[in-house]
């Protein structure tokens, strides 16, 4: 692959899932029993041959830092390049970047130092498995200024995507921002590719002209000059922009096809914890659930995503729940549609229920 | 700052482990899988780092490929240190003579230069085939307090089993007055665990003497320790209370795996006090759909069949209608629909065909005599054809 550097926004639109981002940035939201959302963007970059990744952070990035460490789990603890954290960079005007463009501005010092010809910029707000090298290939072939990755699907009721139209060659002809729409549309998934020098120029121009919106001030006008292309990503994609979509993204893993697509190659990397294997004891029952190392199941678990070190007591029944790591569910509890953050303990005999659209959420560290 | 280590550990990992038969055809005994996600060597290595010992020489000789790859730079055990850390020590060619490690003592003798790099006061000698958690630091404190030249860890074993072990006969103060190496009728039931702490200068001295003795078998238990005792060096016993198991045989390996199960396991991996570290593989959480009773399931498994009283290693697939009972699956194994696995140890990367039957019910099979006491063993990478029956107690190292 042509030499490429990666840039990841670990903290954009954090306010969309306030329950989970109160104590962390979006990229470090726990997912799928042992992962964090950022693992997907980061692992895909590594698997595409990228060995230098800048991680743009904003607030509450302690848990992200703890997760990423030196980057060794992603093979990114390197002398040359590797994982480079890009915490907020403050000049005289403001403390924290307010939008994507200001975030990129903060990373321009990093990009200037990079020798790589191309740059992939991605959000860590979704679960997907993209081969970035294919996008670079197309980018070079079409000689595009920018290549934006899209996913085609039915428009939802609430739509936080930017959508666009392309011609037969996948050249973008028009961009809609914040439009309510119907039917199957091309949704921009906030992953783009550019030449590093082109992106640096864009950032320079944006600073000079005082632009504030990456999509409004840069992408929309650029679409008119005609050298932006779309790249169609056809694999699994699930944006996490609400507790409901978070719930769906997790439950999707109970589907064998999706699980195989994401994890079949065993190449989504994550921080390793030395927990002992899961134990299902006598009287424990597990139906259609994910159970990682460290769990102790003495009750019944059905259609659940459990995280490391979860204990489910005798006589308890959990249905359609997501229970994050090191949580303790006592004896004779009955939980249905519950999303419980880390380090929660639920006392014996507790009954809790939410529904699919609105799971009952338990804050990190709560005792119930 | 001083460039020295107070205590250096030397881990004997070169043994062939011939009594594990097909399980050690291609890998050294310390690299054999244990407890669903571990390898045997995880236990001594974790014990070292948990006891504050960060310099470990691993002496390999027999089939070291998997072991070397697994230990790597020692990072999973925090043993990737700039000074110290874990080092693989294989036999090497020297100017005057070249030899394989002839015995346990000779293996350590050939690496005296490695130990001297760290200028240690003490040397801890360990075996790579025991499952236990132990604080070596406490043993070292006892060694220092007694001003001993050598301290040997020991534990009480049932009298009828005592003849299998090296037995220590001790005075009331814990000092040793006699060794009985695998004696038919030993005087006591205090068995040596194969864990020794030596004062480094004494170790080097007696290793050199032992090397000069042409009659010596260059073995710690048979030669070096008795020589020290005869010369009047201060030899102390150190009593260990807790779980310890030599997993050198098929039946003891099976038992040790089963000791991890139950409401109150004999050996509790869940205790967070002293975590056993391992090179955890990259796998998603286990997916469980079927019936699982009293079993350990590692990450990456896909369980749609039935698993009872078993230990299932990483990335195993148990298809619908398959039943695994009283068995150990080491990892990466597929048990196809309708197959039955009973009272067996299945090495990594095995495929068991549809409706195949491996082993027999524990109640019947465990009455069998023979090398494995009725446990059926399938070696690494074996395929069992659809519908094939593998009788109880067989050791299989070719496809059937």
Fold and architecture overview:
The complex is a heterodimer of chains A (368) and B (400). Chain A folds into two domains: 4-263, Spore Coat Polysaccharide Biosynthesis Protein SpsA, Chain A (Alpha-Beta Complex), CATH 3.90.550; 279-362, 3 Solenoid (UDP N-Acetylglucosamine Acyltransferase, domain 1), CATH 2.160.10.10. Helices cover 24% and strands 29% of the residues of chain A. Chain A contains ten helices and 28 strands. In chain A, the strands form six sheets. In chain A, strands 1, 4, 5, 6, 8, 9, 10, 11 and 12 form a nine-stranded mixed sheet that branches. The radius of gyration of chain A is 21 Å and the shape is globular. Chain B contains nine helices and 31 strands. The longest helix of chain B has 13 residues, at 200-212. The model of chain B has no long low-confidence stretch (mean pLDDT 92). Chains A and B meet through helix 10, strand 14, strand 15, strand 16 and strand 19 of A and strand 14, strand 15, strand 16 and strand 19 of B.
Keywords:
heterodimer, A: 368 residues, alpha/beta, Spore Coat Polysaccharide Biosynthesis Protein SpsA, Chain A, UDP N-Acetylglucosamine Acyltransferase, domain 1, 2 domains, five-stranded parallel sheet, 28 strands, 29% strand, globular, B: 400 residues, seven-stranded mixed sheet
SSE layout:
The complex is a heterodimer of chains A (368) and B (400).
Chain A: E1 4-9, H1 18-21, E2 30-31, E3 35-36, H2 38-47, E4 52-56, H3 62-68, E5 82-86, H4 100-106, H5 108-113, E6 118-123, E7 126-128, H6 132-142, E8 146-154, E9 162-166, E10 172-176, E11 184-195, H7 196-209, H8 214-225, E12 228-232, E13 237-239, H9 243-251, H10 256-263, E14 278-280, E15 285-287, E16 289-291, E17 296-297, E18 300-302, E19 305-306, E20 311-312, E21 317-319, E22 322-323, E23 328-329, E24 334-336, E25 338-340, E26 345-346, E27 351-353, E28 360-362
Chain B: E1 7-12, E2 33-34, E3 38-39, H1 42-50, E4 55-59, H2 65-71, E5 85-89, H3 104-109, H4 112-116, E6 122-127, E7 130-132, H5 136-145, E8 150-156, E9 166-170, E10 176-181, E11 190-199, H6 200-212, H7 220-230, E12 235-239, E13 244-246, H8 250-258, E14 286-288, E15 291-293, E16 295-297, E17 302-303, E18 306-308, E19 311-312, E20 317-318, E21 323-325, E22 328-329, E23 334-335, E24 340-342, E25 344-346, E26 351-352, E27 357-358, H9 362-365, E28 376-378, E29 383-384, E30 389-390, E31 395-396
Parallel strand pairs in B: 1-4, 1-6, 4-5, 8-12, 14-17, 15-18, 16-19, 17-20, 18-21, 19-22, 20-23, 21-24, 22-25, 23-26, 24-27, 25-28, 26-29, 27-30, 28-31
Antiparallel strand pairs in B: 2-3, 6-11, 7-13, 8-11, 9-10
């Amino acid at each position: 692959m042509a030499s490429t550097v990666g840039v990841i926004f670990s903290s954009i639109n954090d306010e969309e899932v306030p329950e989970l981002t109160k104590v962390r940035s979006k990229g470090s939201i726990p997912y799928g029993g042992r992962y964090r959302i950022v693992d997907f963007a980061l692992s895909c970059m590594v698997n595409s041959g990228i060995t230098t990744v800048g991680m743009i952070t904003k607030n509450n990035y302690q848990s992200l830092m703890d997760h990423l460490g030196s980057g060794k789990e992603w093979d990114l603890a390197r002398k040359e390049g590797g994982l480079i954290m890009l915490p907020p960079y403050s000049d005289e005007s403001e403390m924290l970047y307010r939008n994507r463009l200001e975030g990129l501005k903060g990373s321009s010092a990093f990009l200037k130092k990079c020798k790589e010809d191309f740059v992939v910029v991605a959000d860590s707000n979704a679960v997907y498995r993209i081969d970035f090298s294919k996008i670079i290939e197309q980018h070079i072939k079409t000689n595009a200024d920018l290549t934006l990755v899209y996913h085609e699907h039915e428009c939802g009721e609430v739509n936080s995507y930017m959508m666009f139209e392309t011609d037969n060659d996948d050249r973008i002809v028009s961009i809609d921002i914040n439009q309510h729409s119907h039917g199957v549309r091309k949704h921009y998934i906030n992953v783009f590719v550019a030449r590093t020098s082109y992106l640096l120029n864009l950032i320079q121009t944006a600073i000079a002209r005082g632009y504030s919106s990456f999509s409004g001030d840069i992408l929309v006008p650029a679409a008119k000059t005609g050298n932006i292309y779309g790249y169609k990503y056809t694999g699994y994609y699930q944006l996490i922009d609400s507790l409901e979509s978070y719930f769906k993204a997790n439950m999707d893993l109970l589907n064998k096809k999706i699980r195989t697509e994401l994890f079949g190659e065993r190449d989504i990397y994550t921080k390793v914890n030395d927990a002992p294997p899961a134990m299902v004891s006598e009287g424990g029952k597990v139906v259609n659930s994910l159970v990682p190392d460290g769990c102790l199941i003495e009750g019944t678990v059905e259609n659940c995503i459990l995280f490391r070190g979860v204990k489910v007591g005798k006589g308890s029944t959990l249905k359609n729940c997501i229970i994050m790591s090191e949580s303790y569910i006592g004896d004779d509890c009955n939980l249905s549609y519950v999303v419980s953050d880390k380090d929660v303990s639920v006392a014996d005999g507790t009954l809790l229920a939410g529904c699919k659209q609105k799971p009952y959420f338990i804050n990190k560290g709560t005792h119930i | 700052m001083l460039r020295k280590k107070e205590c250096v550990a030397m881990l004997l990992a070169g043994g062939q482990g011939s009594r594990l038969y097909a399980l050690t055809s291609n890998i050294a005994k310390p690299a054999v899988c244990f407890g669903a996600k571990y390898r045997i060597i995880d236990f001594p290595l974790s014990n070292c780092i948990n006891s504050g010992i960060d310099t470990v020489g691993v002496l390999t000789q027999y089939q070291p490929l998997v072991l070397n790859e697994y230990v790597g730079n020692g990072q999973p055990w925090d043993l990737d240190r700039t000074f110290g850390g874990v080092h693989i020590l294989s036999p090497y060619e020297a100017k005057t003579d070249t030899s394989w490690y002839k015995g346990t003592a000779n293996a350590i003798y050939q690496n005296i230069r490695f130990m001297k790099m760290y200028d240690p006061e003490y040397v801890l000698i360990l075996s790579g085939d025991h499952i236990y958690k132990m604080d070596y630091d406490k043993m070292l404190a006892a060694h220092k307090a007694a001003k001993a030249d050598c301290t040997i860890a020991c534990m009480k074993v049932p009298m009828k089993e005592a003849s299998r072990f090296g037995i220590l006969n001790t005075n009331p103060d814990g000092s040793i007055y006699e060794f009985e190496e695998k004696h038919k009728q030993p005087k006591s039931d205090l068995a040596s665990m194969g864990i020794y702490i030596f004062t480094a200068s004494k170790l080097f001295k007696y290793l050199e003497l032992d090397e000069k003795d042409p009659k010596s078998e260059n073995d710690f238990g048979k030669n070096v320790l008795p020589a020290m005792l005869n010369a009047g060096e201060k030899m102390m016993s150190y009593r260990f209370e807790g779980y310890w198991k030599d997993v050198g045989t098929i039946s003891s390996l099976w038992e040790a795996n089963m000791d991890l199960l139950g409401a109150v396991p004999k050996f509790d991996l869940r205790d967070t006090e002293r975590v056993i570290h391992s090179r955890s593989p990259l796998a998603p959480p286990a997916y469980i759909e079927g019936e699982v009773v009293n079993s350990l399931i590692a990450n990456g498994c896909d369980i749609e069949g039935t698993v009872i009283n078993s230990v299932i290693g990483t990335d195993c697939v148990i298809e619908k209608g398959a039943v695994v009972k009283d068995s150990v699956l080491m990892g990466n194994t597929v048990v196809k629909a309708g197959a039955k696995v009973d009272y067996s140890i299945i090495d990594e990367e095995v495929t068991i065909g549809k409706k195949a039957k491996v082993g027999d019910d524990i109640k019947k099979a465990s009455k069998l005599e023979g090398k494995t006491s009725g446990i059926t063993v399938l070696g690494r990478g074996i395929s069992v054809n659809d519908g094939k029956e593998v009788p109880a107690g067989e050791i299989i190292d070719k496809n059937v």
